[in-house]
Amino acid sequence: MDYKAASFHNSASVDITQSVEEDPLIDGPLISQDALHPAIHRDFRKLPTHCVAGCLSFLNVVYVCLSLALCVTCELLEGRVEQCEAVLHGLGSLTPVLLGKVGLWVCVCGYECLVQRHHNGARGRGYLQFYRETRAAKRLPLLIHSTGNACVLLLLSLADVLKALQKHLPLYLLLGVLCLELLLSLTSLLIYTVKVMRFNMEKPSPDINQEEQSNSYFSNSSPTHTETGFRDGSSLEEVVEKQADLIEYLKQHNTQLSKRILFLTAHPSRA
């Protein structure tokens, strides 16, 4: 019995030794912990979208002011129609207003694409909660201006009927739509700008790091308060959405770490 046990122990030790020697990862160069630090902890990147929102707000204010001045001067004031037509080279006073409305809508579409690109980058860096909090705020300007375009088109289609009721009624309604659109757009852009500026000032760590810190704090202070999963009163759709975003972020994070490990394994001098 002793002989069999000794032989089994020797064979097991030989198998373990052979498996260790045949493992290429153990024979390869060891990667220090500091080498992966830049891939795990990245510098915080500020979002420049609040500057774009400020420029869009300024452009919107300028457009509405010029439209009001043009409509009041060329339509409501008597004796200025011929002068306006001479300056506008025969065009009606509403033509520049409508062309400007289309140009402003194109600028809002460009703003939406640019903001979405930066927010997708923030989402990929792990700021999932901020992405969800600002999702509605960044879409509101495009929704407001698209609704305003629909109202302007409706007014143009009903212009003859409205003129029968009152001569300048279509113009009054058009200016009212532009002013209401400006008010709602500035409010949404202001709310979005405040959220982005607060995010840039706080410079938070990714959500997964915050959850790990909070979980470690509660586990050290009061383990009975730590709970995970679905709770009564919480939205199941929100929980599923958070889990999907977190899984997507972790997959991208693992891909980056794998590329970093392969690079350091191929270039041990930079480890």
UniProtKB/TrEMBL annotation:
Amino acid composition bias (Polar residues), ranges on this chain: 207-227
Say if the entry is tagged with keyword Heme: no
Q: Give me the Gene Ontology terms describing cellular component.
A: late endosome; lysosomal membrane
Protein localization: Membrane
- Pfam families reported in the protein's UniProt record: TMEM192
Map out region (Disordered) in residue numbers: 205-234
Give the chief site where it resides: membrane
Q: How does it sit in the membrane?
A: Multi-pass membrane protein
Please give the PANTHER family that the UniProt record associates with this protein. Answer: TRANSMEMBRANE PROTEIN 192
Task: Specify the protein name.
Answer: Transmembrane protein 192
Gene that encodes it: TMEM192
